[in-house]
Amino acid sequence: MKLCNWIGLLALSIAVAGCTLETPLAPSGNNTGNNNIISQQPNGGETGVVTNIIDGDTIDVAIGGIEQRVRYVGVNTPERDEPCYGDARDANSDLVRGQTVTLVRDVSDTDRYGRLLRFVYVGDTFVNATLVAQGWAEAVEYSPDTGQTAYFRSLEEAAAAANLGCHPTGIFDDGTMTR
Asked: Given 115, 138, 153, 156, which residue is catalytic?
């Protein structure tokens, strides 16, 4: 492994270990090795099975026999016509395809497109956080759903410093974390 990757992983580990938030969703685990998987037990939520991967931050989930589109809260990934789209979509797919997921609401139930807005977990893997930590997603603030904003920003700073995932493309360098 290159020295810059080791430094990046060290910075990510320090950021994850030192992060605390006053929210029931605050990460209680840490980085679990070279895959940068963020572990955390979800509080409540509903469960379903992932039936389709739309892109890096949107999936279809069968919940009680009804398919729902789910948009990940607090993160954003490249769109279909942007650099790194395929890589971010693949990273999301690797985490959730065919898996049973737990979906936890922040504040809003749905967005203007009717998609459920949720924090997504596979077991104790916090998918939203993992995508940011690995550099496939950027932290964004979609008010009022800001329960993990500070945490996601710290993960993004570490991923950017380590030049992980999509960061080398510059796709996340738009100068803002709000939408």
From this structure: 115
Q: Is 82 a catalytic residue?
A: no
Of the candidates 50, 48, 52, 68, the residue with the CA atom closest to the CA atom of residue 110: 68
- The pLDDT assigned to 31 comes to 38
* Cβ contacts of 52 within 8 Å, gap of 6 or more: 59, 60
Q: Is 97 a catalytic residue?
A: no
* 71 has catalytic annotation: yes
Catalytic residue among 22, 69, 79, 97: 79
Residues 116, 88, 93: CA angle, nearest 5 degrees: 65
Does this model's pTM top 0.70? yes
Do 54 and 90 contact (CB within 8 A), yes or no? no
| Helix intervals (H) in 117-165 | 127-133, 149-161
Q: Domain 3-169: which topology?
A: OB fold (Dihydrolipoamide Acetyltransferase, E2P) (2.40.50)
The ranges assigned to domains in the chain are 3-169
Q: Which of 22, 67, 71, 80 is catalytic?
A: 71
- pLDDT digits 0-9 by tens, 9-30: 444 444 444 433 323 343 433 3
User: Residue 3: what pLDDT?
Assistant: 42
